[in-house]
Amino acid sequence: MKHSVKIMVTMGLTTMGLASLGSANRAFAQPLPEGAGKQLVEAHCSSCHATNRISSSLGYSQSDWQALIATMLDLSDNPNQAKITGYLAEHFPPSTQRNPKLPQGEITVDFKEWAVPTLGQRSRDPIEAPDGSIWWAGQWGNIIGRIDPQTGDMREYTLPAGAKPHSVTHDSQGNIWYTGNKNGTVGMLNPETGKITEHKMPDPNAKDPHTAIFDSEGVLWFTLQHSNMIGRLDPKTEKIKLVTMPTKNARPYGIKIDKNGTPWVACNGSNCLVKVDPNSMTLREYPLPDNNTTVRRLDIADDGMIWYVNSGRGRLGRFNPHTGEVKEWPSPSGASSHPYAIAVLGDAVWYNESGMRPDALVRFDRKTEAFQSWPIPTGTGDERIYSGIVRHMRPTRDGNLLIHQSATNRIILVTPQSH
After folding, report:
1. What is the distance between the alpha carbons of residues 159 and 128, in angstroms, rounded to a whole number?
2. CA dist 179 to 100, 158, 372, 404, Å?
3. How many alpha carbons lie under 13 Å from residue 230 in its C-beta half-sphere?
4. N-to-C CA span, the chain
5. Which of 28, 172, 218, 376 has its CA 20 to 30 A from that of 356?
6. pTM higher than 0.85 for the full model?
7. How far is the C-alpha of 6 from the C-alpha of 36, rounded, in Å?
8. How far apart (Å, rounded) are the C-alpha atoms in residues 154 and 398?
9. Across the chain, how many H-helices and E-strands are there?
10. 41-74 pLDDT, tens per residue?
């Protein structure tokens, strides 16, 4: 089933206050310390996210808390701004308990960032389209957006109610597809006409489309994490087929297509990788070492090797699909580093350590097996802060890397340079 709607385009700044989201978050909130400003913080912050996001942060000075909050909502005219930031700075000051280990090397990187317009949207999963534009998903804002990297111009498109896009991708014609993570849809935006076409899941148990990718035949493959399914949508016939993972609660997450057109899927709830037969959609699980292994995402190198992040054990892994051999390397920051996003670029594997504060960008040299890491910044000069988690990274055509910092609504282009 599908239907089409016209989108609304937003260009200015808005604040995000979603009552339903706030109610859900308060159910998982952790009590804040007593002190002057506590009730103000609860009133302003828990309307959009649980207060445990505050306690799990890196911690900041008062000026840095003010800079961080400014990426979420506008308190510039609020007479209580100083009380709010003062409370946060007193009870959640800068901490070094989760600092990453940052091995040095010969590569330098340049971070170029764009602050997207709508505050509090949690921008994520940027990708380069065929025309060179950059698209992202603003999950909490229920929008997808476009950046012209040459001019910096941005445009945001409001999606059908309740879509809450988890990710975006594009087809060969330049249409932008998104996964409607909260309303059980996969949608397509035609950038030329502004029309959005929604495709609803044929099974009511298929509730949360997650990550999507096109194969060379123009077929869209996608995961549904908590529904424990993998889906296939043929845009020509508009038919969707779903299959359930062999292992209960395997939680399929990242998905990539190898050079033979075969989808491979990462298991975020079990120690496995899954190979999908592109014709029958038969699933074959490949178990990975250690029951504590979980995999957020994977990527496939030009030699066919499958590289994955062992999020559960803080390791980088390589799986040989021809022999079944598995090799893993401890991530620089250790077992609690929680590697998350991953991309293979030439002779290097890039990923992030999302369990660290700040979130670290890591480069692994496939030839020398050497690691090098950088803290991922947001802002410039006195307003430079370190906050956010990279949940997906993808290469550009010229060999650079697109990442994001959701907490500060930043899309970031990483340009590596060797010396």
Report:
1. 20
2. 32, 14, 33, 18
3. 28
4. 54
5. 28
6. yes
7. 47
8. 21
9. 5, 30
10. 999 887 777 888 787 777 888 888 888 888 788 8
